[in-house]
């Protein structure tokens, strides 16, 4: 009987791996992909258009912070 239970568990693990891939693919195709197409179709604004002409990156420079024990306790 233990041999049958062990084989059944192995079979269940294989089915679970296949089933999870199918379910996640369906969730992507049914929900996320149509929303993406909708947003790209009706809201064509890109973040690249909002970049300043003078800057070469989106990096925001921050002031130097001394990280000591007092600074860590304030967090």
Q: How would you sum up this structure in a few lines?
A:
This protein is mainly α and 75 residues long. It has helices at 2-42, 69-74.
The CA-CA distance between the termini, in Å, is 57 Å
Provide the gyration radius in Å. 26 Å
- Work out the number of β strands: 0
Structural class by secondary-structure content? mainly alpha
**Mean pLDDT over all positions:** 82
Gross geometry = flat
Biggest sheet statistics: none
Low-confidence stretches: none
Q: Portion of residues in helices?
A: 55-70%
Report strand %.
Answer: under 5%
Order of helices and strands: HH
What does this structure look like?
The protein is built from 2 helices and no strands. It is mostly helical and 75 residues long. The chain has a domain of 45 residues. The relative contact order is 0.05. The mean pLDDT is 82.
Identify the notable features of this structure and list them briefly.
75 residues; single chain; mainly alpha
């Amino acid at each position: 009987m233990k041999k049958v239970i062990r084989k059944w568990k192995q079979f269940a693990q294989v089915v679970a791996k296949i089933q999870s891939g199918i379910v996640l693919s369906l969730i992507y195709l049914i929900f996320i992909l149509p929303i993406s197409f909708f947003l790209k179709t009706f809201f064509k604004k890109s973040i690249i258009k909002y970049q300043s002409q003078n800057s070469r990156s989106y990096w925001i420079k921050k002031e130097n912070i001394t990280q000591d024990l007092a600074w860590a306790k304030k967090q």
